[in-house]
Amino acid sequence: MSFKHVFNAKLNWTSKEELVPSSAKKYTKSHSIVVEGKEMMQVSAAKAFKGDPSLYNPEDLLLSSVVSCHMMSYLYVCQQNGIEVLSYQDNAEATLEVLDNGSGRFIEVRLFPQVIISNKEQIAQALLLHQEANKLCFIANSCNFSIVHQANCEAV
């Protein structure tokens, strides 16, 4: 049996001529996104695409979604396998390829999970569970680029 969930977001953008004169024929990239029941998020294009570098951009949000979903899936499979995770950190990176015609796409995300567990006898299994977590991750299952895991695990 499958279930379907619908997620909603509202985007609001207006031209701010005082920031970008209409004669420049460029639009400001900054806008707001609201998800019901949550604080408004200010978003722009990445600095490389003439956006406001102090704001989140779609590329940041996509990478954040991948790394966050992987962690939650990983914690789930560890719990299912009796592995106690004490801490989880990741310094993920995404590679975006931009073509001459202005189109582009992510070609790879690299996750570098640093996991600390309570039982050193479970380190090998804890490392293998990253692949299982990737198979369960809703976001990873929705991506058309490779997601590479370079995990490290220690026990205390």
From TrEMBL:
InterPro entries: KH_dom-like_a/b, OsmC/Ohr_fam, OsmC/Ohrsf, OsmC_Ohr_Peroxiredoxin. SUPFAM superfamilies: OsmC-like (SSF82784). This is OsmC family protein.
